[in-house]
Amino acid sequence: MTEHSSRIKFGSKFGIVAAAAGSAVGLGNIWKFPYEAGQNGGGAFLLIYILCVLLFGLPIMVSELVIGRRAHANVSGAFRQLSGTNHWAMVGLLGVITAFLILGFYFVVAGWSLEYVYQAVANAFERKTPMQLSQAFSDFSTDTFRPLFWTTIFICCTAFVLLAGVKKGIERTSKILMPFLIFILILLCVRSVTMPNGNEGLKFFFAPDFSKITPTVILSALGQAFFSLSLGMGCMITYGSYIRKDNNLTKTALHVTSVDTLIAILAGTAIFPAVFSLGINPAQGPKLVFVTLPSVFSHMPGGYICAILFFLLLAIAALTSTISLQEVITAYVSEEFHWQRKKVIVVSSLVLIVLSSLCSLSLGIGSHYTIGGKTLFDFFDFTTSKFLMPLGGFLISIFIGWFYKADEVKDELGNHGKLPVKLFSVYIFLMRFFVPLAILLIFLNELGTFS
Ligand code: PFF
């Protein structure tokens, strides 16, 4: 068998969307998006975020799927194959490093979601004030052993699904989850919006105050769009390589982007009205969701069951994302260095246990070890979203816009002439000029070039 035909492929059309959406939808939508919005001016952030999704996210997602499916290889192999040079393979290596750094802190937060399933089952949120919930979260997240326990369990779950194989593991898990998660988020929105003073939260989240738009808000929204859509590090390239030749890539990208954005907006709608109703500080950062939602559950009929279901779904949503992140590493090492998949999964999981443990400890006993004033957890979060992923997006736009032939891209998008390719000139314009220039300007500004 040739290399091409022996690679595993995703099955049904819904399976492809579900797996890619499974990667995109995760802690980024439900944990990170609300707190970023809370810290960056609410409506102003939402507006810039949506613009970033449309102008950067969508065209880069299309490009990554094209690169992956065209080359049928891992992220590095794909660049090497399509460019014919080894230099571009370095972009792939950058993606693999980014995957390690993201997983370092992502597994910690995923572990928190498991602790919250446990607490929900134990009915630990009942009759607690937001202040008490906030204290309980701080006590837990800065503890030495408890978060490590859950993080390790989460890493083992991810390894288990990966060992079961791409198609069976990823597709099946993702397919069941998504509709269920949307349903429970809608329930939460209804409860939150009808809380006293909930309007204030809706106003904060949906009515943009233009004076709040600053370069920091723009960089945060850009980074969040990359993070939430799993872009700029080869995840969608790797998934693209498992997509069949007859799939409509543009539609897949549109569906994934829409579902991902919808879920982020639902999460914001579930959180901000309750934040304002309960007098919680919207800008308190990573603990926002873990303080607000337990308060909402303790104020709603059936809250006990909903809390268990919600945190379980959050953990599963995180799982479909960690699977995709670790798949970037697995495909890369197994194809580039000819290791068995099983060996890569076991070794990378061990490395990740160490990395995540350090991240978790950096919030508690290790908090005085900082890099540029940031704990290891914050440093990994900051460098990946606000630097490495936009940098990856920049390099992808240079590759597609300037290096690879536009005709080839069009051929892949049109399934070799079988599908009409609409708005191709808009797409190429964005990839050639807008995306690289805008990212460059945002970076230069961050470096203080214009001040
Ligand atoms: N998009 C995921 C989320 O929003 O939680 C995080 C993520 C997954 C980032 C996969 C990058 C990636 F390759």
Description:
The structure is a single chain. This protein is an all-alpha fold. The protein has one domain: Hydantoin permease (Orthogonal Bundle). Helix content is 76%, strand content 0%. The chain contains 19 helices and no strands. The chain has helices at 3-6, 13-24, 27-39, 43-71, 75-83, 89-121, 130-141, 146-163, 166-193, 198-206, 215-228, 235-240, 249-278, 288-298, 303-336, 341-361, 376-403, 406-413, 424-446. Helix 4 packs across helix 11. The longest helix is centred in the last third of the chain and has 34 residues, at 303-336. The radius of gyration is 21 Å and the shape is globular. It starts with a helix and ends in a 5-residue tail after the last helix. Mean pLDDT is 93; it is low at 1-5. The structure holds 4-fluoro-L-phenylalanine. 4-fluoro-L-phenylalanine binds at residues 23-24, 26-29, 102, 227-228, 230, 233, 235, 321, 324-325.
Describe the structure in brief.
The protein has 451 residues and is mostly helical. The protein is built from 19 helices and no strands.
CATH architecture identity: Orthogonal Bundle
Which sequence of SSEs, written as H and E, runs from N to C? Answer: HHHHHHHHHHHHHHHHHHH
Strand content: under 5%
Q: What share of the residues lie within helices?
A: over 70%
First and last CA, distance: 58 Å
Listed once per kind, the bound small molecules are:
4-fluoro-L-phenylalanine
Task: Give the total of domains.
Answer: 1
Poorly predicted ranges (pLDDT <50, ≥5 residues)? 1-5
CATH fold-level topology: Hydantoin permease
